[in-house]
Specification:
Regulator of chromosome condensation 1/beta-lactamase-inhibitor protein II, repeat, single chain, 8 strands, mainly beta
């Protein structure tokens, strides 16, 4: 397997190395080194973060945007956690946002 990317059975690919994995009751999250989050497993209650309740057999990249900004700015995600019915992605506080506090 290539260190930079991994091809998935469904033709998709992870963008970089996985640096953190979190396992919930029936779903899994992976955080890659470039800050992307992927989820797969049972989608009940929307816990995969895809906007649907469909189950996913293979990792699906979750799309985030920064609600504090009119333009879509990419959040720098630094951690993930999962529980029975939820998923959590932790974003690093942006330096320019802190300057406005």
């Amino acid at each position: 397997m290539d260190e930079e990317s991994a091809t998935l059975p469904n033709g998709g690919s992870l963008s970089r190395k996985v640096v953190t994995v979190a396992a919930g009751e029936a779903h899994t999250l992976a955080l890659t080194g470039d800050g992307f989050v992927y989820s797969w497993g049972r989608g009940m209650f929307g816990r995969l973060g895809t906007g649907a309740e469909a189950d996913e057999l293979f990792p699906v990249r979750i799309k985030f945007n920064d609600p504090r900004s009119a333009e879509e700015r990419r959040l720098k995600l630094v951690g993930v956690a999962a529980g029975s019915y939820h998923s959590l992605a932790l974003a690093e506080v942006l330096a320019d946002f802190c300057g406005r506090l």
